[in-house]
Amino acid sequence: MMDVFVRGIGFFTPGFASASAWCDGKEDPALEKPEAAVLEGALRRRATPLTRLSIEALSQAVRMAGAELATIATVWGTAHGEHTPAIKMLKMMKTGEGRVSPTQFHNSVHNTAGGYASITSTNTCGSTTLTGGSELLGAALLEAICRIDETQEDVAVVLGDERLQSPFEFGARTADLAYALVLSPREEGAQARLSDLALEAEGPLAEEHARFGPLYISAGLPLLSAIARGEASRVPLELGRPGGGPRWSVTISPGA
Amino acid sequence: MKRNPYPITGWSAVNGLGTTTSAVMQALREGRATLLPPPSGTPFETLCGTVAADLPRLPEELDSIDSRNNRFVRRGLEELAEPLAAARERWGPSRVGICVGSSTAAMDEIENASNVHAETGALPVAFDVLEGGSAAGLAHALRVFTEVTGPLAILSNACASSGKAFASARRWLDAGVVDAVLVGGADSLCQMTLRGFGSLGLLSPEPTRPFSEVRRGINIGEGAAFALVERRGEGPRLLGAGESADAHHMTRPDPEGAGARIAMQAALAQAGIEAGDVDYVNSHGTGTPFNDAMEATAIRAALGEGVDPLVVSTKGYVGHTLGAAGATEAVFVLQSLAEGWVPASLGADPVDPKIALQIPRERVDGELRVALSNSFAFGGSNVCVAFGAAE
Q1: Burial class of residue B75 in the structure, from the number of CB atoms within 10 Å of its CB (0-12 exposed, 13-18 middle, 19+ buried)
Q2: A–B CB contacts, 8 A cutoff, strictly below
């Protein structure tokens, strides 16, 4: 599989509005919601929490890369999808005739963020949204790298999930999290190189982070830290999965 | 840019027409639909492509992921056991990947758990949101049932999910990451989807009638379908795929069909074929006034004047199986390419006079060269997959 280069990083979790703030531990306790400034008008009013979160991360990464939201291809990953509209509709289904809101319904598909992003930026590149469990991050990177291999153009990969809400949180502490990478076939000016993305029989596992608990996509935090700190290392991309099996890892090295 | 064609060495389907591939294809060949009343409690008048058979539970050790959806998956993979075993043997388990689309995955399990919680204050003991209540459980089931250790992706672009799985699988093969990919889709009926489409006013109270002047909307269906795409082998071929976004509206298609046209033209370009080579288009054809009018415009624009393939919607047979629709309709196309027939477009009579396409109301027998399969989705996500007859 080809090597690709990281040209931009985006990140948001409550308290931390950038990857550098997160890596430096510079928390702003007043920061609760992402700005997602590219969403305007009706799209902004209707956008779900996950869509705002994911588009904030995408926007940061695209800006850092000097790329364009209108033309960049995107790959999205979310393990739990649009949790807030789903919870709202479960409640609506138990009241009155049990009908649901049309807006909540169309906002409940996993590719909602991809749809809003394409509409707000008039981007007609097809975007692909992945879901699943522990393997999600590795599969999203694979999809992005194969798309770069196909087109030789930059691709933004965006991972996002919301804090799990009652009654589906099982007492596990989780938090909103989204991050994005702009990956490129071009090395010049890149922050880092990604190589040897692979499934390994005894590959390392990422540890759960106290803030995010079992949220699958938090397995990407070591990767983000390694990029931000200019480290060279082989990093895990999974928290582990039931039944075991091979695990995704990738090698990160500083850019040119 | 033209890409390599890849043979498809086996396929399977489970849906309202039956729980064996042969039963499903026999009904399709004979023009028999199976559409049933919706689950009790559905606050809309409609029909559904329901899998009527009671499929057996998963083994006890898989209790936490025993969902209706995963039972469809197991049944579909049982039908494909022989070619899948041959692919594992031929390429090695780590060189076989899995790329499967699903829109709702285990949402019916979440609904059940939510109802139990509302009544008792607690979730069911076996319920685990990280597994049984998400696509993680689908991924787990696919690993167990296939014994494949290559890359696995679950795609979720709503109703384009499993059409796009073919596009991703082809990318993996082109990049040399794998030598075979199990492509598929699976979705089970759930109240959220039925009520959601009902709230949008898109459910048909009668059997869906795609392309008809009197079409009234969608019937929702369920099921699973799989196709085994390999680097080498015998069978109909995956020629190419085209993807696009409308960038227009979350639910309403662009009336000009620009995004759909772009996807079809991209599929033709990647396949390295001319529009005139296309004999059959398996349309998205949901039976809603907007979709069918848009799609007719897009097909005409993509293929050009003087090109008049047969255009069929097979949603009149099984309903709209959502995340499984792309794979379900792809395997319908593969069967047609292998055997040389195009199914009747059920319910199309009387065809909308504004739809200037050749829509067969009876099965058409004859050799086919190339067929396209369209899937469009919420979020403006479009995909067209081009398949060719075996060489």
Answers
A1: buried
A2: 230
Residues B8 and B87: their CA atoms lie apart, in Å, by 11
Confidence of residue B23 (pLDDT cuts 50, 70, 90): very high
Identify the band that residue A203 occupies on the pLDDT scale cut at 50, 70 and 90. confident
By the CB < 8 Å criterion, does A96 face chain B?
A: no
With beta carbons less than 8 A apart as the criterion, state whether A108 and A86 touch: yes
- pLDDT of amino acid A256: 65
Which one-letter DSSP state was computed for residue B158? G
Q: Show which of residues 208-237 on chain A sit within 8 Å of chain B, judged by CB atoms.
A: 214, 216
CATH number for position A144: 3.40.47.10
The answer to the question of residue A111 being in a domain is yes
By C-alpha distance, which of B326, B285, B319 is closest to B52? B319
Confidence tier at A206 by pLDDT (50, 70, 90): very high
Q: Which of A15-19, B49-53, B165-169, B252-256 has the lowest mean pLDDT?
A: B252-256
Which phi and psi (to 5°) does residue B186 adopt? -155, 135
- Give the chain A residue whose CA is nearest to the CA of B196: A105
Residues of B in contact with A160 (CB under 8 A): none
Please compute the mean of the pLDDT values over residues B76-86 and round it to a whole number.
98
Give me the helices (H) in B4-134, please.
21-30, 68-79, 81-91, 107-120
> Which residues in chain A have their CB less than 8 angstroms from residue B252's CB?
none
pLDDT tops 80 at residue B333: yes
Does B379 contact A143 at a Cβ distance shorter than 8 Å?
Answer: no
Residue A242 placed within a domain: no
Is A48 part of a structural domain of the chain? Answer: yes
**How many alpha carbons lie under 13 Å from residue A179 in its C-beta half-sphere?**
29
Q: What is the pLDDT of residue B129?
A: 75
* Cα separation values, B218 from A128, B121, B197, Å: 25, 36, 8
Architecture of domain B6-388: 3-Layer(aba) Sandwich (3.40)
Residue with the bigger pLDDT between B133 and B351: it is: B351
The answer, for A256 touching chain B at a CB cutoff of 8 Å, is no
Question: How confident is the model at residue B124, as a pLDDT?
Answer: 87
Question: Per the structure, how many domains does chain A have?
Answer: 1
B249 with A109: Cβ contact below 8 A: no
Which element (helix H / strand E) includes B145?
helix B135-146
Residue B152 dihedral angles phi and psi, to the nearest 5°: -130, 130
Domain interval for residue A96: 4-188
> Are A36 and A55 in contact, with CB atoms under 8 Å apart?
yes
DSSP B38: P
- pLDDT tens digit sequence for B372-387: 999 999 999 999 999 9
Q: Is the CB of A124 less than 8 angstroms away from the CB of B246?
A: yes
Q: Exposed, middle or buried, A34 (CB in 10 Å: 0-12/13-18/19+)?
A: buried
Across the interface, of A100, A119, A150, the residue whose CB is closest to B380 is A119
Query: How far away is chain A from the Cα of B269, in angstroms, using its nearest Cα?
Result: 14
CB atoms B164 and A128 under 8 Å: yes
| pLDDT reported for residue B226 | 99
Between B1 and B383, name the one with better pLDDT.
B383
Say whether residue A109 is in contact with chain B using an 8 A CB cutoff.
yes
Longest pairwise C-alpha distance within chain B: 64
Would you call A170 and B135 a contact, using CB atoms and an 8 Å cutoff?
A: no
Question: To which residue do tokens 């004999």 refer?
Answer: B279
Where b means 16+ CB within 10 Å and e means fewer, A8-21 reads bbbbbbbbbbbbeb
